[in-house]
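Before surveying the methods themselves, we first show a specimen of the format, giving the amino acid sequence and backbone structure tokens:

:::
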Amino acid sequence: MAVQFGVHLGIQNATASELRELWTWLDNNGVDWISLWDHLYEAPPAGGTQPHFEAFSMLGALAVDTRNARIGCLVFCSQYRNIGLLSKGAISVDHLSGGRFEMGMGSGWHEQEARAFGFDFPSQGQRFAVLEGQLAAINAWRRGERVTQSSPSVELQDAAMLPGPMGSMPLWLGGLGPKQTLRMAGIYADGWNAAYASPQHYRELNGILDDWCIDAGRDPKEVERSINLSYALSTEDVSVVRTSLENQWGAASERIISGSLLGRPSDAVEQIAPFVDAGAQLINIAIRPPWDMELLAEYVLEVIPQMRRDFSVLNS
């Protein structure tokens, strides 16, 4: 499988017009994947002090503004929506996109926004229990079944999902947990997404996912592998960018930096290559607006084509 390149976009600190202009430009210039994140407050957390849009409404615009790229959400927080409503929305966006939508699910992490808006945010183990029930329901609906199910936070009585997706509407699972996230990915998912991991950590997790797939009786090749890398390319000195990331992310900064692109766009090839070697099939840059259009254009128009050539040789 040829390595693909995408953009994971934070829908914050930019106007709707600016976001739509950006993803239309990305789609017209050959990126393979465009996704939005599912937050109500800014990330990294800043107490709801920065403007931020809601994911589903913006995904509808993304679906109709683009024509070529696969689109999705990496990932929807399992705590924020009734699973029937979530699946109805996903299928609606899939039809608006002509069958290009891919659904991502995760247990969530942004407790600050959850508490602010009154969403239940139990322990990680409890959130995993909710998520697994949701994954089971989604896959039953994707198979065209009516669903009766009683599991944590999921109560369904002969629930039909019509229309169904235009195609298979691939299901992604996002996260870094080796015992639960990867186990569930091996059972339920068509794709696994990791965010902000080092190449070594990504390789280790990729191998663990292979084992979980085999335990579930699946060929590991059935599960696509992707990585989100924080887009920190800049004209500033790398040390300045590192300090900024440390200030923004606090205790999580070491992990974020290990999964970040730093320096100029031309430096990205050397930083991305270890992830491809570790098994990543889709490389997404995670953009937190505002963005430098000149630097981004260099990455999309010059660096991505170079990587397509270089990595096709590696994979041949």
About this structure: The mean pLDDT is 95. The CA atoms of residues 111 and 195 lie 17 Å apart. The chain has two domains: 33-61+77-169, 175-228+243-316. The chain is about 45% helix and 20% strand.
